[in-house]
Amino acid sequence: MKEKKELNKYIKFLVNNQKFFFTTLIIIISLFLVLNRISPYMKNKKSNIYQVIDEKYNLCSETYFKDQKKIENFITFLEVNKIVDFKNENDFIQELAIISNPSRKIKGYLNSKFKKSDNLYEMYSKATVLISQNKFNEALKLSYELNNRIINDQSFLKNETLPAGSLLYSLNLLRLSNLEGSLKNYNKEIVYLEALSKYLSTGSENSIIKEAKEAIDRSFKENNFELKDFISYKKDLNSSK
After folding, report:
1. Which of 152, 205, 143 is nearest to 174 (CA)?
2. How many CA atoms lie within 13 A of 39 on its CB side?
3. Domain boundaries in the chain?
C-alpha cells in the first residue's frame, strides 16, 4: 500500500507536468521511429547529397535550432536540390515549429510542408506542432483523423517498414488519451489508454507490435513506472472527480 502511494505521488508529479513528460516521450519514440523508417527513394539518390543534408542538419541541431541563418541556409539547400523528404525531416519540422519568432523563410517552409496531408507521419508531426501552440482542439481533431485512417488502412500496419506503422498507431493512441485529458474528457482519456494497453498486449503474438510495445514500455520505465501504473492512477484520479 505504501509503495502504491509513493508511485501515485510520483505519477501525479508527471501528470501535473505532462507537457514536459509527453514531449520527452515523443522525442524518445520519434527518434526510434525515424531510425526504423528509411524511405525507398533514398536508393536512387546520390549518397553525397544526403551526407551534406546530414551535415547541415547537424549544424542546426548543434545550436538547438536557435541559429535561424543556419536553418535558412539548410532550407535553401533543400530547395535548390529539390529534396522533398529526408530522414530527419519530422524532427526538423517539429523543431522549427516551436521557434518563437521564425523568419519569413522558415514560416514559408513550414506552410509548404503542412499543405501535404496525405502522409500519415506528416499528420502526426503537424499535430505535434498544434500541441506546442496549445491548439488542443485542433490537434485532437487531426489525431482522430489519423487514427481513423490507420484503422481503415490495415495494410499500413502490416506493410509499413517495421516497426514504424505499429509504433505510430500506438503513439497516436497515447496522444489521443493525453489530449482528451487536457480537455477534461476524462472517460475518453481512459478509453484510449485501455485501447493502447489492449493493442500492445498482443505483442507476444506479433513481432511488429512487440517492437512498438518495447519502445513505449522503455519510455515509461525511464520515468520509473509502467503503462499499467499510469492507467491505474488515471482511473483512481478520475473516479474521484
Report:
1. 143
2. 15
3. 2-38+132-239
